[in-house]
Amino acid sequence: xxxxxxxSNLVKNYGNLCAVDNLSFSVRKGxxxxxxxxxxxxxxxxxxxxxxxxxxxxxxxxVAGLDTVRDRNRVKAFIGTVPQDIALHPFLTARExxxxxxxxYGLKGKKLKEEADRALAFVGLEExxxxxxxxxxxxxxxxxxxxxxxxxxxGLIVMDExxxxxxxxxxxxxxxxxxxxxxxxxxVIYTSHYMQEVEEICDRIAIMDRGAxxxxxxxxxxxxxxxxxxxxxxxxxxxxxxxxxxLCGRILLLPDVKDARFTERExxxxxEVATALEFDGFMQLLQLLERExxxxxxxxxxxxxxxxxxxxxxxxxxx
Amino acid sequence: xxxxxxxxxxxxxxxxxxxxxxxxxxxxxFILGTLLExxxxxxxxIPEIKIAYVAEEDDPAFLKFLKETERQGxxxxxxxxxxxAALEKIDGRYAAVLCRxxxxxxxxxxxxxxxxxxxxxxxxxxxxxxxxxxxLSLSQGVVPKEASADFVTGERLGVERSMIDYYxxxxxxxxxxxxxxxxxxxxxxxxKKDGVFxxxxxxxxxxxxxxxxxxxxxxxxxxxEEAAVMACSALLFGARYGKGVLENLxxxxxxxxxxxxxxAFGMAAGLLLRCQPVxxxxxxxxxxxxxxxxxxxxxxxxxxxxxxxxxxxEAAFDLxxxxxxxxxxxxxxxxxxxxxxxxxxxxxxxxxxxxx
Lengths: 319, 356
Description:
Chain A contains 11 helices and 14 strands. Chain A is of the alpha/beta class. Chain A starts with a strand and ends in a 5-residue tail after the last helix.
C-alpha cells in the first residue's frame, strides 16, 4: 500500500486548548516525512498520538492499514520511537539498554543479542557497548537513543528532534543513519526545529502551526507556494562610466530573469538579479557581466527556504 | 528476564544504594545499641527486698515457695517466731512481714516502700491464686498428680539481651520500611524520569508482565539488604537474633516477605505520586516507625497497636526472644496476601497509565 501512515481529520484538545486541529496527512512507505513547525504547533502531540501514547478526540489514525485504537498492540509492534528526551537507563551499559528495550518488542535469546549488536554498530557505538550510559557524552546518548528505537527493525520510525544538543559529527552520523534506514525500507517521520536538516533528508515536509497543517509537499513544492523567484547578489568593481540602467536592461533580456537592480549595502554597490526558480542561465549572466567589464568579487545566492515559506503562509517567523 | 536484570543491576551499581541499605543500617545498629544502652533504664530501681515471715512447719507449699523465691534472688527472707517483734522492724530491718494467720489466711504487713510493696503483692497474688485453685480441685475430689517439678518452676526466662539486640531487630524493620517504601516508589520515579516508562508505554509488551518482573527484580535487593545487615550486625557488633539456625532462617524469611510487601506498596504508590517519592514516603515511614515505639518510648494505647511496624516488630521479637513462630506466621501470611494484592493493583495502574 502506498499510504503507510494515514491521519484523517485528527483533533486533540487539552481543555480549552486545541493542540491538534483537524489535521490530515499521509506518509508513503519508505519515505522520510518531515514535520516542521514552531513550538506549540502540535508536532509532539501528533507524534504521541501516532505512537499511541496519547488518545485523540476525533478523526482516525492508521499505520500499515491498522487502526491505532482498535489494533493498538499490533501497531505498537510496527513502530520504533526515538523520543525527544533521552530515554535510557543511566546505570545500564549501552548494550544492556538496547537489549532491554528490544526485549519489550518480543526479541529474545540469540536474536536479541544479534539485533542489539547490529543496532549499536548502526549508530557507531559498537565499541562503546560496555560503557554505562551515565558516562557517555550527549552525542553518544543521542545515538544510543536511536539504537534503542530501531533494534527491533520497525517498519515505521518516529523521531522527535533526534539531533538536539549534539555535536556536528554526531549530527552528521545521525542524519546519514536515517538515510540508510530509508534505503533499508523503513518509513521515517522526522520532526525538527532545524530546517537545514529537514531540507537535507526529508522527501516530503509538512509544516504545522497552531495545531493545523499549513502546507505539505516536497521542498520545491513548498518553496513554490511562497515565492516564484530566487535572487543572485553580485558584488564587483564596475568600470568607470558604466551605464547601470542599460546593464540592468540587458540582464532583463536573459530568459527567466524577473528583475535586476543596483542597491547600496553598507557602502558597497550590489547588483541584485531576481530570477525564476527554474533559472539555469547563470553562465550567461556571468558572460554578460564579463563583457561589460565588471570585475567580480563575489556572488551570493539567496534561495527561498522553509522559513520564507512559513513567513509567507502564516505572516510569522518560525522562531 | 531483561527487566529483572535491569532492576537488579540498577540497584547494585549505585553506590549510594549499597551504603544506605547495608552499611549505614549496620552502623546504626551499633551506634543506637551502644549509645542508648545506658539511657534505657527503668525509672525506679527495685530495691533488695528483705521480709520476715511467720509460718508453721505443716505449711510445706508456702515454705517451699518462699525458699524458691529466695533461691532465685527475688527476695531475702528470714523466718521469725514472734510476729509483733518483726512488725516493729518494718521499714528498718524488713521491708514487710508475711504471716500465715489462724484460719490459713496469708497476710502481708507492708512498709512504706511502694516499689517493694508492689513487687511483693505481685508475687503473693500469683501464689494465692495457685493455692485457691489447688484447694478448689481438692474439694471437688480432683487429686493432683505428683509432679516432679517444684511449685514454682525455677526457670528463668533464659534470655539475656542487650540494647544492640533490640535495635538490631528495630533497625531491620526500619530498613525494610524505608528501603521498601522509598526504594520501590523511587524505582518507578526513576523509570518516569529516565524515560523508561515512556518506551515501555509505546511498546507492545504486556504491561502486567513488565510491572511484575520489575517487582520481582527487587527480590534480590531485599534479600541482600536484610542478610547483609543481619550478618554485619551479628559478626561485627555481636547482635543476637534467633537462638538457633532455624529461628534465624525463619526470621530471614519473615523479613523477606515483609520487605517485598513494602516494596510492592512503594511501587504501587510511586505510580500515583506526582512528586519526589522521598517527600511523601520518608515522613510517612518515619511516622509509622515512631508511633510503633521503635525509637521512642512512645507507646500510645490504641494507636501504636494499629501501626504495621509494631506488629512486625512484635512478631520478630517473639521469634527471636522466645522462638515463638505463631505471630510471625500470621503477620507473614497477611503480608503475603497484601503483596499479591498490591502487585495486582500496581500492575492494573501500570497498564492504565499511558503517559508520564
